[in-house]
C-alpha cells in the first residue's frame, strides 16, 4: 500500500486517535427533501453499526427486502453516526413500531424518490484527539485553516481497503486477471473498487510530487465544474482557468480506471497513464483531486489533554485522511 503524502511538510504531530462511539461522531449533511412523496426519509442515529448492518436490521424489523431501502452514503461502524434512510411510505405503520437498542429514529419527512448513493452534500465530523501536547493545539488550528484554504489531497482512506488491505488488493487482481471466483457480488464489487482506488491514491502521490504549497493543475487535466457538476477537458489550461481553480469554481480530477471514464490528455495524461488499467471491465470514475474542509473549530481540555476538532467535508471524502494530514503521518497502511 502506498504511503499517503500531503502538501504540508511539517514535523509529525504525536497524538492518539481512536474510532469509537465517543471519539468519532458523524452527521450526514442531506440534500433538500421535498416534504411530500411516496418515500419516508428517516433521520437515524446509530452506534456500533455499519450502514449495511443498519439496512439489514431495518429490513428485518419491517419485514421487507433490504433493496427497498435507500441510503446516500456508507458510514463507519466504530462511531456514532447520523444518516438518512429512505423507506417506502406504505411501511409507515411498521416504522412507528420499530425498536432497536443501537438505532434511534430522530425524525422523519417525505420525499419523491428513493435515496441513492451520492444523494448528500457532505458530512459533519466531531473527533477527539487524545494525548495532545498543549503547544501543538495552535499548530493543529493553523494547519486546519491552511488545509481549508489550499485543499486536502482527496485520498481514499485506509477503510476503503479493509483490514487486510494488501491481501484484498491481491484478491481483486486475481479476480480481474485470473479465474479467481467470488460468489458474492457485493464482495467482488468492493474488491474491484478498492483496486481502482489504489490506482487513484498512487496517482495522487505522484501529482503531489509535481506540486509545492498547493496542488498544481496541469495542461490536459480533466476538471469538474462545481456549480454544474460536470467534467470537462479544456484544449489549453489558461490563466483564467487557474484563477477559477484558486477561487474554488473548478477542481482537477483523478482517474479510477475502468470503462466509460474520461481520460486526461497532454501533460496530465503522461502521469495518468502510469496509473491506468484498461483491462478492468467495471465502470470507471473520476474523483476530485483535492477537497476543502469547512466549518472548522478546535477546542482543548488541558486537564485531559484532549483536543476536539470539528469540521465538514464534501461527500465521498475521508475524515481519517484529514487527521493524517494534520498529523503528517499515516494512521494505518
TrEMBL record:
Catalysis: reaction(s): uridine(13) in tRNA = pseudouridine(13) in tRNA
GO biological process, one term: tRNA pseudouridine synthesis
InterPro entries xref list: PsdUridine_synth_cat_dom_sf, PsdUridine_synth_TruD, PsdUridine_synth_TruD_CS, PsdUridine_synth_TruD_insert, TruD_catalytic, TruD_insert_sf, TruD_pseudoU_synthase
UniProtKB keywords: Isomerase, tRNA processing
Annotated EC: 5.4.99.27
Top-level class of the enzyme under EC nomenclature: isomerase
Source organism, top-level taxon: Bacteria
Domain TRUD residue range list: 151-306
Gene3D superfamilies per the UniProt record, alphabetical: TruD, catalytic domain, TruD, insertion domain
Gene Ontology MF terms in the entry: RNA binding; tRNA pseudouridine(13) synthase activity
GO cellular component, one term: cytosol
Catalytic site positions: 76 (nucleophile)
Keyword Isomerase carried by entry: yes
Biological role: Responsible for synthesis of pseudouridine from uracil-13 in transfer RNAs.
Family statement: Belongs to the pseudouridine synthase TruD family.
Protein name: tRNA pseudouridine synthase D
High-level lineage: Bacteria, Pseudomonadati, Campylobacterota, Epsilonproteobacteria, Campylobacterales
Gene designation: truD
